[in-house]
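TICKET: design request
STATUS: open
ATTACHED STRUCTURE:
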């Protein structure tokens, strides 16, 4: 079996269509189809079947796609060993991350990897629904994702999941708000406020929805945005309250707004790195991932002050 042809099955399993596989690999759809037909002739088993106007892997195709992951990982591990023998990690590492995580980790991470001049990190802002982060691993070496407490991480058999930090979510209120003098609040204290939220089904929105269920009343969301500084500005100027990530927002809180922990609900988000196993084996990717883990440890050990 040809390793490159097996890799096409993995791509088809991840991307769902021959057209998407062709776009990702810089090939024509007909070339991808031809390689898949060649592989089918070699193994003597149907690997891909038509469904409507598209295709899907058969059970045999799925089994070979899973084998392709193990083969690609073994090759990447061998290359990493060779890179280490030759004296260092080199190459481009592509990272997708939502903005507030980039703000929290990227400056320190880049400082940590300056001793590896052969590594170049390319970043893309990707703030998507928490169910869609796993799909980004098809195009990026490292995906920095977040999920709410009630959602399980992807299965380790599919992706490598590296926990970075659980970040508490506090209620942000303006300095002139009626609750600004409190040290902490309950759901009942705040659920009736005007809320500045994030898009539906994002991790922070799921926490707010859980608060509404606990209180037995819907939350009144008057504005939604993925841009954290805007949300903080709206809170600071008294246009509503918001659930704000503690480690990320605390540095901008002094003199502008208060962060009040919730006492009667577990409010937080898990930030973690998602990687394909074969890409996680690359030496350059390991270096960048280790830098992220070190930065996360630094953030969680920092004293919580200025609230």
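STATUS: resolved
RESOLUTION: sequence designed for all positions
ATTACHED SEQUENCE:
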């Amino acid at each position: 079996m040809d390793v490159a042809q097996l890799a096409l099955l993995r791509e088809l399993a991840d991307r769902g269509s021959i057209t998407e596989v062709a776009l990702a690999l810089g090939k024509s759809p007909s070339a991808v189809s031809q390689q898949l037909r060649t592989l089918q002739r070699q193994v003597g088993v149907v690997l891909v079947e038509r469904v409507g106007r598209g295709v899907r892997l058969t059970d045999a195709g799925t089994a070979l796609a899973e084998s392709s992951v193990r083969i690609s990982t073994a090759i990447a591990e061998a290359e990493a060993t060779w890179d280490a023998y030759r004296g260092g990690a080199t190459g481009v590492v592509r990272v997708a991350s939502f903005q507030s995580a980039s703000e929290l980790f990227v400056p320190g991470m880049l400082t940590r990897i300056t001793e590896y001049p052969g590594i170049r990190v390319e970043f893309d802002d990707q703030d998507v629904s928490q169910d869609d982060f796993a799909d980004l691993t098809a195009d990026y070496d490292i995906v920095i994702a977040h999920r709410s407490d009630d959602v399980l991480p992807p299965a380790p058999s599919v992706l490598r999941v590296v926990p970075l930090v659980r970040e508490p979510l506090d209620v942000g209120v303006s300095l002139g708000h009626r609750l600004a003098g409190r040290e902490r609040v309950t759901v009942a204290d705040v659920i009736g406020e005007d809320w500045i939220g994030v898009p539906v089904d994002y991790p922070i929105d799921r926490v707010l929805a859980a608060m509404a269920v606990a209180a037995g009343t819907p939350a009144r969301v008057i504005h939604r945005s993925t841009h954290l500084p805007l949300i903080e500005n709206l809170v600071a100027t008294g246009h509503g309250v918001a659930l704000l990530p503690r480690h990320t927002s605390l540095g901008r809180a002094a003199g502008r707004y208060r962060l009040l922990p919730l006492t009667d609900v577990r409010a937080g988000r898990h930030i973690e790195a998602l990687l394909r196993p074969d890409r996680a084996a690359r030496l350059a990717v390991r270096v960048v991932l280790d830098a992220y883990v070190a930065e996360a440890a630094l953030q969680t050990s920092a004293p919580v002050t200025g609230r």
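CLOSING REMARK: DSSP finds eleven helices and eleven strands in the chain. The two ends are 60 Å apart (CA to CA).
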